[in-house]
Write a structure and sequence with these properties.
The complex is a heterodimer of chains A (253) and B (308). By secondary structure, chain A is mostly helical. In chain A, 77% of the residues lie in helices and 0% in strands. Chain B is an alpha/beta fold. Chain B starts with a strand and ends with a helix. The relative contact order of chain B is 0.14. The mean pLDDT of chain B is 89. The chains are: A mainly alpha (253), B alpha/beta (308). Residues 45-46, 86, 160 of chain B line the site of magnesium ion (MG). Adenosine-5'-triphosphate (ATP) binds at residues 15, 17, 19, 21, 39, 41-47, 86 of chain B.
């Protein structure tokens, strides 16, 4: 195990964040604050409670998930895409490190950043809404599992992408719609039955539902199922990455 | 501990485009030598180096680095190797010191501020250590690439056209650095288009063209074996045509017939010069001046590649 290499990659990535502190951390926090003001305070005050939870409280887990997914994917995909783009990847490829170590470095850094952002949003939310976290351990679990799984996914995306457009198209065209339709702003029980069933094919539903359960003890689907789904997703990502490195797909001629 | 630090056996590379970039390469690099790899654009130099360093996968063949298989024992093999790639690629927003330290870590070495300082000083980069890379000139960026390659104290250093686009002074400077490294026991493999560089620096020279190694030899031996000498005669009166009596000689008229060039093999006992001068006298051809010259590595190289 090349620990020095993992450390080098991890801190190199983290320092990139520090250098771009404003856009890495401040902008997601700011944009979620806007959601809280608009949906939580302004519109939320006219909405009824959902499952006994006020609307302002209800949207917190979904909003955090929204940022968490986007940040994890964009940080990890950018992290590995940039060396490909600038050509500095030669150094990673010629270093005495294996795929596993590269992934721990990059995905570890992306996960750390996302979790930090998630926590910051959580703290920001406290300014607007008074909420309690019923199952803090589960909440941390969900936070970490989601951030790490989607960082893995972002890593795959960064390897697959061969242009900046492609890098952005997946978060924009797939992840954002899935999050919006995954119950960030409503309970899927509020949908007609057909749409409810259809929604169950949206993996983000399980994330948001499980995460919300850790806050308020209410859920659209069973928590066990949620956890199971995240782990399945993570497993799929790991398999794909294993295959990528085995084949050298889009990294090595 | 064998004499060869790198052994390349039957190496082939066919790119996914179907292009066969390397064809059955067999090459040994000796411990501690400075080996220059010459070849025209697209010959396969970078491909060969990148395969040795693990950046590109070979199609077939085997490479041993100090006895370690560069794929099966990639950790041991790669730890020994430093690479300065042909293209400068840097993290523009990083500082010099940060990026060099990163390289050291990547190769599994614990931080060594003293050693890094020494490397940066030797490359005249120490004053620039806190500068962002994007503020450096092209030549300095190239030196940063060298510092990165040296950061983990490699025993073998690959330099893929290190002096391309570098001014005369810096080139001289880099040559001195290479000599220092060689004195420290580092094996250096260099590709270059400046034949002068190979002529000055190399112990051995390999020429590659169309993915095949054409020749590998000691520099002196190569120059002797393939070097031709020329005798240049400046004529009193320009000539349009050679007289029939001189037909058997390897003669050529240049500069509108003002000069005559005789090419001969310096290895032969009888160079034919005496005979030629006699013939010239008989034909009443007078000359003002004469000088001999030895073909440079450059000419040897051009001849070799032309023959292919
Ligand atoms: N990734 C690639 N895919 C397909 N063909 C490639 C690739 N990289 C290089 N080639 C081809 O392989 C051949 C050898 O290229 P290489 O870069 O090794 O040449 P070189 O000797 O380093 O040339 P130069 O002196 O210009 O740097 C060339 O014909 C080149 O077009
Ligand atoms: Mg090249």
């Amino acid at each position: 195990m090349n620990l020095h290499a993992i450390k080098a990659i991890y801190f190199f990535e983290m320092s990139r964040t520090l250098r771009t502190l404003m856009q890495s951390i401040a902008s997601p926090v700011l944009s979620t604050s806007l959601y809280f003001i608009v949906f939580g305070a302004a519109i939320g005050s006219r909405m009824g409670d959902i499952d006994g939870v006020s609307y302002g409280e209800f949207i917190i887990p979904g909003l955090i998930m929204l940022s968490l997914l986007n940040e994890s994917i964009s940080n990890a995909s950018f992290g590995i895409y940039m060396p490909k783009f600038t050509g500095t990847i030669y150094e990673l490829l010629s270093a005495p490190i294996n795929a596993f170590e590269i992934i721990i470095g990059f995905v570890g850094a992306a996960t750390t950043k996302s979790v930090i952002i998630g926590v910051l949003i959580l703290l920001t939310a406290k300014l607007f809404v008074d909420y309690e976290v019923t199952h803090p351990v589960y909440m941390c679990c969900f936070l970490f599992l989601t951030a790490s799984s989607f960082s893995l996914f972002g890593f795959i995306l960064g390897i697959w992408a061969d242009s900046f457009e492609r890098l952005q198209i997946v978060p924009m065209m797939i992840i954002t719609p899935l999050t919006f339709l995954g119950g960030s702003f409503y309970s899927i029980k509020m949908l007609p039955e057909f749409w409810q069933t259809l929604t169950l094919f949206n993996p983000v539903v399980y994330l948001i539902s499980g995460f919300r359960w850790s806050f308020y003890g209410i859920a659209d689907v069973n928590v066990g199922v949620s956890l199971f789904m995240i782990l399945i997703f993570k497993l799929i990502c790991l398999t794909v990455i294993y295959w990528i490195f085995k084949k050298g797909y889009r990294i090595k001629e | 501990m064998t004499n060869s630090i790198i052994q390349i056996n039957s190496l082939n590379k066919i790119y996914s485009s179907g292009l066969s970039a390397l064809k059955d390469i067999n090459l040994n690099i000796k411990r501690g030598e400075l080996f220059a790899l010459l070849g025209p654009n697209g010959a396969g130099k970078t491909t060969l180096i990148n395969i040795i360093c693990g950046i590109i996968n070979p199609t077939s063949g085997q490479i041993l680095i100090d006895g370690w298989d560069n794929i099966k024992a990639f950790r041991e093999a790669r730890s020994l190797v430093g690479l300065v790639p042909q293209e400068i690629s840097t993290d523009m927003f990083e500082t010099v010191l940060h990026t060099v330290n990163f390289s050291r870590g990547l190769f599994g070495k614990a931080p060594a501020p003293d050693y890094i300082e020494q490397v940066l000083c030797a490359l005249s980069l120490w004053e620039k250590k806190d500068n962002k890379l994007l503020t450096l000139s092209g030549g300095m960026k190239r030196r940063v690439m060298i510092a990165k390659a040296l950061a983990h104290e490699p025993k073998i250093l690959f330099l893929d056209e290190p002096t391309a686009g570098v001014d005369v002074e810096l080139r001289q400077d880099m040559w001195n650095r290479m000599k220092d490294l060689k004195d420290q026991g580092v094996t250096i493999i260099l590709t270059t288009h400046y034949i002068e560089e190979a002529e000055q620096m190399a112990d051995r020279i390999g020429v590659i063209d169309h993915g095949q190694i054409i020749v590998v030899d000691e520099k002196e031996a190569l120059m002797k074996k393939l070097g031709k000498k020329q005798l240049l005669l400046t004529l009193q009166m320009p000539m349009q045509q050679l007289p029939d009596s001189l037909k058997g000689y390897e003669l050529e008229l240049i500069h509108d017939g003002n000069e005559m060039v005789y090419t001969f093999n310096s290895q032969q006992v009888d160079t034919g010069i005496a005979q030629l001068l006699k013939k010239l006298d008989e034909a009443d051809i007078a000359f003002r001046d004469m000088k001999t010259s030895e073909s440079s590595l450059e000419e040897i190289f051009v001849n070799l590649v032309k023959k292919q």
